[in-house]
Design a protein that fits this description.
5-stranded parallel beta sheet; TIM Barrel; 8 strands; 10 helices; alpha/beta; transmembrane helix; Asl1-like glycosyl hydrolase catalytic domain-containing protein; GH; membrane; 3-stranded parallel beta sheet; 36% helix
Length: 419
């Protein structure tokens, strides 16, 4: 007690002034120093609790994908800002060349063309008209095709006419991923001289329909096949999955695309983080005659020329995949001209070629060309001898044009690049 008393005897009044001034400063520094540590600790325990809760929900229903209903916290409405320059996209683990990173102009116009040299040449008159250059063509390839000479001829014509190929693979009745010889196919494709720096490949077609997958619905098999293709083709190619039939609801011969995608990701977790872009079939329904501005009851975005916005939301909401570059590899209205010999579609419900031309113009001007996510638009089909596909054609059998072709040639285009 005497020691303590002696200490206080040595405290002078000015000491109290120093203490009063210094104490708040010390407390403030302490708060600044320890606040981040406290918040980090709180976040750790919150995240740990969330993980435990998610595990409990998943364990309650083994073997099923649980998607809890979560109400997101509303975000404040942002102030209007200028439209930013598109950032690089398509950077999945397949390491395909990042499209927007090339920094060159892009001509979005293209055509789905049969593998016929004369059709490839003629299609360039549409695709690269009115200021356009280096637009796109979609060509189909059987995965068993090893005819290097034929493909080099087509690529040579495409190069001469400044056309960038998108190769859509067909599985030719092969549905066992273990028996798909992607290695040999990759060797053949690697041996070709491509017209462009970017090598675009879409792996198969509308696989959520039995028609295109050995008369069965097998999303797990397709996911494994896609995963194998991504690994084999590697970083030399820009890989996209098959375009799906987005308008089909689940029934005997179809599985709804949303359910199909979830099943794919369950079979191969993270499969959609590995792709470089998104192929889509943007058909106007019902009956290839729909008007996006006047949809019938029970029809939605998935049934329209803007279907890819619905698909991209599925990828984001279910798998956390950000916006991918979109390639519209098939689209089109069915006009009655040229369909007279087809029994598959009712002639009474078909549109005139003048109406399909007006619908196409609306789609290009008001939807596709103004959307920075859309890279290429290749309508089905440039020209066809099939009596049930002639109604989609842009060029008639005699070489003259349907009205939609004249309309397309009048639209100003961008001089793109092969780099």
């Amino acid at each position: 007690m005497q020691k303590i008393s002696s200490i206080f005897k040595r405290i002078y009044p000015w000491h109290y002034v120093v203490i009063v001034i210094a104490l708040p400063i010390v407390v403030s520094f302490a708060i600044i120093l320890f606040k981040p540590l406290f918040l980090a600790k709180m976040a750790y325990f919150q995240n740990k609790s969330a993980v435990v809760l998610a595990d409990q929900v998943a364990d309650s229903q083994p073997g099923t994908l649980v998607i809890p209903n979560v109400t997101p916290t509303p975000e404040p409405t942002p102030s209007p800002t200028p439209t930013p320059t598109p950032k690089p996209m398509g950077s999945g683990s397949a390491k395909g060349q990042v499209f927007y990173g090339r920094g060159t102009p892009n001509n979005k116009f293209g055509m789905y063309v049969h593998n016929i040299v004369d059709d490839i040449k003629a299609s360039a008159k549409l695709i690269n008209s009115n200021g356009g250059d280096w637009g796109y063509i979609l060509l189909t390839m059987d995965i068993t095709d090893r005819n290097k000479s034929s493909w080099q001829d087509m690529f040579g014509v495409a190069s001469k006419n400044h056309l960038i190929p998108i190769v859509q693979l067909f599985n030719n009745g092969k549905c066992d991923p273990k028996k798909m010889e992607f290695d040999d196919l990759a060797k053949m494709l690697n041996s070709l001289k491509w017209p462009s720096k970017y090598r675009y490949i879409s792996v198969f077609n509308e696989v959520n329909a039995k028609d295109y997958w050995c008369e069965k619905i097998a999303p797990a098999e397709y996911a494994q096949a896609l995963d194998k293709a991504i690994k084999v083709f590697g970083d030399k190619y820009f890989i996209m999955p098959a375009a799906f039939n987005s308008s089909a609801r689940t029934q005997d011969r179809y599985l709804s695309e949303d359910a199909y995608l979830i099943a794919m990701n369950k079979a191969v977790p993270g499969i959609f983080t590995k792709i470089d872009g998104w192929a889509t079939h943007s058909y106007p329904h019902p009956d290839f005659s729909g008007d996006i501005n006047n949809l019938p009851a029970n029809y939605g975005t998935r049934d329209t020329i803007n279907n890819y916005t619905w698909e991209l939301s599925l990828l984001k909401n279910n798998f956390g995949v950000g916006a991918l570059p979109v390639f519209i590899t098939e689209t089109g209205w069915l006009h009655r001209e040229g369909q007279e010999k087809c029994k598959q579609y009712s002639q009474a419900g078909l549109l005139s070629s003048a109406t399909t031309s007006a619908r196409f113009k609306d789609a290009y001007i008001n939807y596709w060309l103004s959307d920075p996510r859309v890279v290429a638009i290749t309508p089905f089909i440039f020209k066809s001898e099939d009596p049930c596909a002639e109604g989609f054609a842009w060029q008639k059998k005699d070489g003259s044009w349907y009205p939609q072709a004249e309309m397309l040639m009048a639209i100003p285009k961008t001089a793109g690049s092969s780099n």
